[in-house]
Amino acid sequence: MSYKFIDLFAGIGGFRTGFEKNECKCVFSSEIDEHAGEMYQANYNETVFKDITTINEKEIPNHDVLLAGFPCQPFSIAGEKKGFNDTRGTLFFDIERILKEKKPKAIVLENVKHFKSHDNGNTLKVVLNALNKLGYTTNWKVLNAKDFGVPQNRERTIIIGSLNGIKFDFNSLKTKQVISIKDILEEDNGQIEYLDKNEYTLIENPKKQPSGLIFVGYRNKKIRTKGTRPDTIHLSRVHKQPNRIYSSEGTHPTLSSQESAGRYFVYHNGKVRKLTLKECYRLMGFKDDFKLLGSKAKLYNRIGNSIVIPMVEEIAKEVKKQILNKTDEVVKCKKSMQQMSLFDFENEKNKLVG
Ligand SMILES: C[S@@+](CC[C@H](N)C(=O)[O-])C[C@H]1O[C@@H](n2cnc3c(N)ncnc32)[C@H](O)[C@@H]1O
Prior knowledge:
Layout: E1 4-8, H1 14-20, E2 25-30, H2 34-44, E3 65-68, H3 77-81, H4 91-102, E4 106-112, H5 122-133, E5 137-144, E6 152-153, E7 155-162, E8 200-202, E9 215-219, E10 244-247, E11 252-253, E12 265-268, E13 271-274, H6 277-282, H7 296-305, H8 309-353
Parallel strand pairs: 1-2, 1-3, 3-4, 6-11, 10-12
Antiparallel strand pairs: 4-7, 5-7, 8-9, 9-10, 12-13
Bound molecules: S-adenosylmethionine.
């Protein structure tokens, strides 16, 4: 069964690809960023609608699933204290008004890991309350991309809601064995940027963290905190993120939408090299034939903003199984019960009349 979805805050279509791989069909996309829109057009042959705040919800096509990796904004605490959730003026409000009008069977929302603790937990509470008021049964969990077959330690809050009373079971998501950076590296085609030995320092006895990261050294730049004791120089936290070097035997830290210079350095085969753009896109699960348009800086911004495709694929599979197919079964069952009783009624009537 093919289900329809809408792709809000679409970026470069990470959500879209994951659902399309599960035979779902995109019927509407919205993305305000010009460059993201151009990439979306080039890769999916579809023009995005721009600013969602200017789009009338009645004009959005009917759909089964609403997908949105929406920006995290605080809600009014004053409103919450007075017993109402004031979401007006935020982009979540636009999701709410679309849900109210269109009533899709399922919703999948994505946000940063700290969404759950943002504004002392108020933001998540307001979102869940608003969804519950619209009739959605919700569940949420922080998922890590590294558990879905890409070597990136990227944690994201995922909220899933259903209109049919089903609480999504996150434990049914199938996780994969963690792979390492070296598994996604390109062959050295002469284009790889290496650092000179005098540009970095390797630490002694690097250790693998539970996240899979192996911090092995740092670029010889200013360290983070003034007055840091010399015996803490081996700790990753005293170095700014773009100066940290990780082993290709482990996972990679979260790619960031703020890192437009692509300063991601890995230690591989005894040398320190920068990740290529293609490798960054691979770290988010994009295939090599994904069209990359525009400046390198913009391409780094786009990829740091995206959602990891293999994680979405697994979510989409389970949303179909747990929510969409079940909703269809209930509807079919109700219909056949109605037909049955009509049949019985006609039978009884014929008996009486006859
Ligand atoms: C976290 S990113 C989501 C990326 C997407 N999930 C992907 O896989 O590429 C949020 C996106 O929302 C877009 N955005 C922000 N405000 C918007 C608005 N008013 N209307 C439409 N898109 C908006 C941003 O440009 C950004 O690309």
